[in-house]
Amino acid sequence: MAPLTDLYHLTMAYGHWRAGRHRAPAAAELFFRRGPFRGSFALGAGLAEGLRCLRAFRFSAADVAYLRSVLPSTTEDAFFDYLATLDASEVTLSAVPEGSVVFARVPFLQVKGPLLVVQLLETTLLCLVSYASLVATNAARFRLLAGPDMKLMEMGLRRAQGPDGALSASKYSYIGGFDYTSNVLAGKLYGIPVRGTIAHSFIMSFTSLEEVQPRELPPLAGGEPVDLVALAESWLGQVCELLQTPPEKANRGELAAFVSYAIAFPQDFQGLLDTYCVRRSGLPNFCAVALALHQLGYRAIGVRLDSGDLAQQSKEIRQVLRACGAHFQVPWFETILIAVSNDISEQSLEEFSREGSEIDMIGVGTNLVTCPLQPSLGCVYKVGVAALCPAWLVEVNGSPCLKLTEDEEKVTIPGTKTMYRLYDAAGHPFMDLMALEEEPSPSTGQELAVRVLGQLREASKVVPTAVEPLHRTYFRDGQVRGATLRMVALESSLELTRWGLRLGGQHPTWTWSCISILQVCELLPSLPEVAMTERLHHLLTELLQASQ
Amino acid sequence: MAPLTDLYHLTMAYGHWRAGRHRAPAAAELFFRRGPFRGSFALGAGLAEGLRCLRAFRFSAADVAYLRSVLPSTTEDAFFDYLATLDASEVTLSAVPEGSVVFARVPFLQVKGPLLVVQLLETTLLCLVSYASLVATNAARFRLLAGPDMKLMEMGLRRAQGPDGALSASKYSYIGGFDYTSNVLAGKLYGIPVRGTIAHSFIMSFTSLEEVQPRELPPLAGGEPVDLVALAESWLGQVCELLQTPPEKANRGELAAFVSYAIAFPQDFQGLLDTYCVRRSGLPNFCAVALALHQLGYRAIGVRLDSGDLAQQSKEIRQVLRACGAHFQVPWFETILIAVSNDISEQSLEEFSREGSEIDMIGVGTNLVTCPLQPSLGCVYKVGVAALCPAWLVEVNGSPCLKLTEDEEKVTIPGTKTMYRLYDAAGHPFMDLMALEEEPSPSTGQELAVRVLGQLREASKVVPTAVEPLHRTYFRDGQVRGATLRMVALESSLELTRWGLRLGGQHPTWTWSCISILQVCELLPSLPEVAMTERLHHLLTELLQASQ
Fold first, then answer.
1. With contact defined as beta carbons under 8 Å apart, do B157 and A151 qualify?
2. Which end of chain A has fewer CB atoms < 10 Å from its terminal CB, N or C?
């Protein structure tokens, strides 16, 4: 993992080493300056990968040989010898637990150790954490919009940045609140439930009922196999009569594909309805096969739509399923799952909600995994060396001659910090507080003066009912500590509910019809707050004045 | 690699297997329907990964055990036994060479073999090829806009979808025409030249000249080491006098960082100019150190800017370098490389070109690797089984009841095809022609009737001076064939020049000032053309009529 970094870290490492500063105690904080997707929050994720990277951090002999070939020829041999001895055993990493809600400006990862190693970890950790957090956040936004009862499936394998991007997408979508993935390897590696339906190509590979092979299926309860082709055909006549659609418009290849699939998966029959006309072909054919299966004791499980006005069609489909269920006395028929896909975005979910729908399950691919609204989280990793430079971590982020006080957002908050999450009497978090490491922890039940970011000029008073350190130590003395490499699916959504989080931007703050575990549903305009202690604020002010 | 697929391919595979169709000869074509980024072309890439996947295509015992646990319990044991025996030894893959120009609708990968395997490869190949092609295309667009002489460096490691996404970005940016990557691992694995400069954090880790350690540097030609701190300080006075900037505004920490870096890399000294004020600090400090180095026989190599108006500043910097060079009689000073970074996009490159600049090297990260203008290529993979369904590969792409002739773009072109690239007398390609596999190859020098896509109603006549099959066979009988796994950097750009390709969309069709190997510079409005033979067109027409 060690060579997974930008070259300039190695040239700078040599600079530090030559200057004898390579073992200076340093600390780094990883954070983002603005919430992604114009929202206020992100889910911090990628911690497990970060820990794996720390454990494996080492330059092999081959790595060192390669570095010799690319660093300037004036680089001293002893530096390469030193690189070959490096590991992360002197590094301590603390972080928010995987999948936690984090806000802009609050470090969600802290790294302490010798300057050279802390510096070398910058790009690697940014690479491992940024996309993980971005896609987890994106997934959480879909979850918030879809509501707690909707089944959400990630299906972005073919659109991600290669296998690893796709696996990350599956994993962190699950952490962000999705239920399933289509990616078999992600299922195998991470234990995420996998789901799949059927593709247009399968349906189009059949043109007539003669192709169905085998044609027979025994009833669920046992007994003589029945010709399912003939049975489905006879049901098709009845369904078409009920629906008043011409039987000759029901595509025979599609019926053949449905029957063939039903014989292969009698207890898991699903139909993809839109290869041909949904109303006159896909739906009658599906109902005919599902009713034939029912006659043999089996239940179909679902349908999928992949084009057109999905919300409107889902309502029409539900109507037909109800009508069939009532007419043919198959009560479960109306509960058949309706799944949709086709370039689903946040906007689609808003439309489904606005128009009403009968959709039970949504598959999201491209707009989940590529995060087109903001394809990178823009995390930064700020390294400081307290002993060498008391003002470390205050910086101007590149804008030359900027008056530091002009743009609060661009001022990095100084010092090595401890972060606390403050809770109100109802047990809901209401503030993340940054304090200097040497400050005592805030006391519960006592009034505390804080400076809220964005309103730094005036102190506010808060009284936390409970105070929790935001970070835990996950890596120390070369060992991973804590058992939080597990998947935390849906806990994130639970956490989101306890904050009253907005999606931000152009999203209407509409109210959900369901009252549920996701009380965020109400989408109140209460922006969560981030604050710093008076002492930290004092240090910041001093440093800003000193740098004028 | 085999489990890197969507679950529905495995359920459908079972469907085919149950129906005894799993070994039916099938063929698939991989293509995109529209050029990405509103342009007309893409570079086909990812072939090497695709071939690796074919070679390794196998379900391990653990894979099969996992599949048993997720497929419906009614799935027959014999199917899993069959899966355990599968490999890609009966698959033949042909494709355009890695990095070739490809157009919408023209398959750039063809896969033939038993239906079940061909089907199972769909998502895997899409995953491996789509992002590779997208980022190679994106890189080529940057190259076209930047011109042939600009040095382009990929630096997207921290913004990509994890390590693998980042490595793909480095590799395929290089194939698309970039010169360098910042990613050390990509350099090591793929032999891409790596480059790096210096970061703000390094500069900010110094606050005073006392911190410089060691302070001395021997002259290049040998001799007594000289105190470079003192020497740089004395040069700073002279530079500030020449530039008429107050010496006290030159940040001492920055000067210390520059001197320290120069002592570490006397032959490779680079300065990052915008940690503090470029004009009053970064530039005087850099010039002072570079002149001190010059006095000892060394040449500084470059500066970098990471904020502000990059084009304007580059011109001011060049002026200062010229003035110093003239005044202090250091002629090479004016040729010092000016590198820029900071959220560079296609628009930035257009602005640089419009405003004029003195930029020599550009680092591109986020906008290269995340492809925000279009974060996925949207490739499709169409499988057909000729024996089962003569109309295979004609499809409606999901829009139900669509009249097939309404939207030419959505009609997939039928049949197993051979693609030819036609060249004019000047040796420039002017058309990609799709023919049925059984048709004879077009003859050179003979008039040929073709149907150009988008103008199918009328035949056009063309006379190719040379005809080349577009595809080569890269995999057959379980073996990779052909030696085209090598990197093809810049060949792609050369190929782009032979076509007269537009970037499309909102890009102005301005003319480059340079006449060079990249004659595409002229950016003529000649959209490359894609056509089909009369026989293929006849088949398409027949099938469209039959499906009415």
1. no
2. C
Mean model confidence pLDDT for chain B: 86
B460 phi and psi, to 5 degrees?
-115, 160
B39: confidence class by pLDDT, cuts 50, 70, 90: confident
pLDDT tens-digit series, residues B290-306: 999 999 999 999 999 99
Choose the closest CB to A276 out of B253, B307, B400. B400
For CATH 3.20.140.10, the residue range(s) in chain A are: 7-140+374-546
Looking up tokens 């030894």 gives B89
Are the beta carbons of A18 and B274 separated by less than 8 Å? Answer: no
A197-359: CATH, from 3.20.20.70, 3.30.1360.200, 3.50.50.60, 3.40.50.2000: 3.20.20.70
Mean pLDDT of B470-475: 94
Q: How far is B403 from chain A (nearest CA, A)?
A: 11
The residues that bridge with B531 in the sheet, in sequence order, are B433, B452
Q: Crossing angle, helix A346-355 and helix A310-327, to 10 degrees?
A: 50
Best probe of the B interface among A49, A153, A204, by most B CBs < 10 A, is: A204
Residue given tokens 């002026």 in the structure block: B319
Longest dimension (CA), chain B: 90
Which pair of structure tokens corresponds to residue A284? Answer: 């009658």
Q: What are phi and psi of A91, to 5 degrees?
A: -95, 140
Beta carbons within 10 angstroms of residue A72's beta carbon: 14
Q: Which residues from B are below 8 Å from A14, CB to CB?
A: 264-265
Contact indicator for A243, A195 with CB cutoff of 8 Å: no
CA distance A463 to chain B (A): 37
Q: For B343, which DSSP code?
A: S
Q: Which structure tokens are listed for A532?
A: 């710093």
Count of A–B CB contacts within 8 Å? 363
Backbone angles phi, psi at B377, to 5 degrees: -80, -25
**Is the Cβ–Cβ distance between B269 and B303 less than 8 Å?**
no
More confident residue, A27 or B221: B221
Beta bridge partners of B421: B432, B468
The residues, ordered by sequence, that sit 6+ positions from B107 with a Cβ below 8 Å of its Cβ are B29, B30, B31, B417, B419
Choose the CATH number for A7-140+374-546 among 3.40.50.10470, 3.20.140.10, 3.40.50.720, 3.30.70.1050. 3.20.140.10
Place of tokens 């806990």: A491
Q: Do you find a cis peptide bond into A148, omega within 30 degrees of 0?
A: no
Alpha carbon distance A145, A46 (integer Å): 24
A512: Cβ–Cβ under 8 A, 6 or more apart, which residues?
A147, A353, A518, A521, A522, A523
N-to-C CA span, chain A: 41
What does the alpha-carbon distance between residue B257 and residue A380 come to, in Å, rounded to a whole number? 21
Mean pLDDT of chain A: 86
What confidence tier does A412 reach under pLDDT thresholds 50, 70, 90?
Answer: confident
- Report how far residue A369's alpha carbon sits from residue A391's, in angstroms, rounded to the nearest whole number: 39
pLDDT in tens, B327-338: 999 999 999 999
Return the CATH fold of B220-359.
TIM Barrel (3.20.20)
Number of CB atoms found within 10 A of residue B494's CB: 15
Strand partners, A105: none
Name the region of A374 (left: φ>0; alpha: ψ -120 to 50; beta: rest): beta
Among residues A265, A260, A258, which one has the least CA distance to residue A215? Answer: A260
Opening angle at CA A438, ends A436 and A441, nearest 5: 80
